[in-house]
Amino acid sequence: MRIAIFNNESAQSQRTTRFLRQEILDAGFEINDFHPDIVITVGGDGTLLSAFHRYSAQLDHVRFIGVHTGHLGFYTDWRDYEIGDLVTALKQDSGESVKYPLLDVEVTYADTTEHGHFLSLNESTLKRLAATLRTDVYIKDNFFESFRGDGLCISTPTGSTAYSKSIGGAVLHPSLEALQLTEIASINNRVFRTLSSPIVIPKTEWITLKPAIADDYVMTVDQFSTNDRPIVQIRYRIADEKIQFARYRHTHFWNRVKGAFISSDTDEK
User: Fold this and answer.
1) Residue 56 has pLDDT above 90, yes or no
2) Is 166 assigned a ligand-binding role in the annotation?
3) Which residues are tagged catalytic?
4) Is pLDDT of 267 > 60?
5) CATH superfamily assigned to domain 102-240
6) Does 45 carry a binding-site annotation?
7) SS3 string of 38-84?
8) Given 3.65.10.10, 3.60.20.10, 3.40.50.10330, 3.40.50.970, which CATH number is that of 2-96+247-262?
9) In this predicted model, what pLDDT tens digit does every residue of 148-159 receive, in sequence order?
C-alpha cells in the first residue's frame, strides 16, 4: 500500500507527522506522495481540504484519512494520540470506503473561449468586492430569480455544515446527492424580490448564475478565491467524481454534527 502524508505547519502536526511516518515505514508500507492509495492528513479540516485539491485528479483510487491535532475536525476521525491504532487499522485494510458527493463548478469567462473547471468538497461562493451582487439564477436552464445582495453560496451536503450553515442553510446528509443554494444578505423590497430561503437541488438538475457585467467579482472554491477575470456565467452540478474516506472507524454523519455543534460524547445522558 502506498501512503502519502499531508500536514499543516503547526508544531504539533509536524511532530505527529514525523512519528506517523516512522510508524508507517516500520509497518512495511511505502511512503509515496505522488501516486498514493491512501492520503493521511494531519491537522484539521482545512488541511484535508488542501489535500483533497492536491489529489483531486486521483479521486478514482485515492482514499482519505484525517488525523486532527487541534480543535475537533469535521472530516477527521482520528486523534494525534491514536497513531498506533491507526497503523493497526492500515494493516487490516480491506479496501472499504465511504463516498461523499462533490460540487462541479464550470465557469465561462468573458475574456476567453476556455472554461474554468473546479471541484469543491465544501462550497463555492460568488460575491463582489465593494458593491451589491446582481445575478440571474437559473435552475436546470429555467429562469428562477434575479438576485440582489451580498452573495450566493452553493454547497455540497458535507459542506452544508460549513459556511452554508452559518448563513442559514440546512444541514444535509451526504447520502443525499444534492446541491444547496443559500443567499447571503439578500435584498428584498418593493423593487427586488428573492425567495429568501435555501434551495435544495437534486442530482438531476443544476444551478446557473449569470451575473451582471462587472470586473470585481470574487469567486471562491472551498478555501481558494479568484477575482482576476470577468465572469459570464457559473454552472454548478453534482460532480461525477466523489471523495472516498477509508472506512476504518468512519464516524456516523449525525454523530459528527452533534459532536461539532451540540455536545461531545462526555455530555451523553
Assistant:
1) yes
2) yes
3) 45
4) no
5) Probable inorganic polyphosphate/atp-NAD kinase; domain 2 (2.60.200.30)
6) yes
7) EEEEEECHHHHHHHHHHCHHHCCCCEEEEEECCCCCCCCCEEHHHHH
8) 3.40.50.10330
9) 999 999 999 999
